[in-house]
Known about the structure:
The complex is a heterodimer of chains A (114) and B (113).
Chain A: E1 4-6, E2 10-13, E3 19-25, E4 31-38, E5 42-51, E6 54-57, E7 64-70, E8 73-78, E9 87-94, E10 104-105, E11 109-113
Parallel strand pairs in A: 2-11
Antiparallel strand pairs in A: 1-3, 3-8, 4-5, 4-9, 5-6, 7-8, 9-10, 9-11
Chain B: E1 3-7, E2 10-14, E3 19-26, E4 31-38, E5 44-50, E6 56-58, E7 64-68, E8 73-78, E9 87-95, E10 102-103, E11 107-112
Parallel strand pairs in B: 2-11
Antiparallel strand pairs in B: 1-3, 3-8, 4-5, 4-9, 6-7, 7-8, 9-10, 9-11
Amino acid sequence: DVKVTQSSRYLVKRTGEKVFLECVQDMDHENMFWYRQDPGLGLRLIYFSYDVKMKEKGDIPEGYSVSREKKERFSLILESASTNQTSMYLCASRGTGVQSGEQFFGPGTRLTVL
Amino acid sequence: AQSVTQLGSHVSVSEGALVLLRCNYSSSVPPYLFWYVQYPNQGLQLLLKYTTGATLVKGINGFEAEFKKSETSFHLTKPSAHMSDAAEYFCAVINTGGFKTIFGAGTRLFVKA
């Protein structure tokens, strides 16, 4: 059974803290993604990575950074958390190939910044 | 630029009634189209997808969708709603050879007993 796991389901942090969200996939996928999900806005892409140590900005990268040191792991970092980063964060992975459009999602991390 | 529009942020149906969730897309090249479902407090999971070939695609849990190029639509249907179908549904598009997936804003489906 393929799986994408995220380190925390719920997280509460204070303004200014550095926050790490971890994502691990066991499907040997090259591509990994971080989204944030907010009501009425759907999913917005923060960053993605198509290979180890490679990363590309998505649509809303400000205030975030990422790290991909190993193929199976993709981390999202909030350098200095702010209240407007309170959201649901979803990690996804995807294989490479013409038929590999499907993304596999983790269960999400609901982050609250106080 | 590609985009996805889901008509109706909330849809309410009675149990046993037809489910119709609307999705229109824009893409300059032949698209791959997807419907994902998200149950409460969970991530998204694939319901069905269109890549090439037959334009009517069947997915899990009795859902199906039809790709209509002339209408740039990919509406999701189910003949008879079940209480367990209550969830949020996302339409998505990725252009062939592309990388990013563009998601619609989502439609929350309510099923009344």
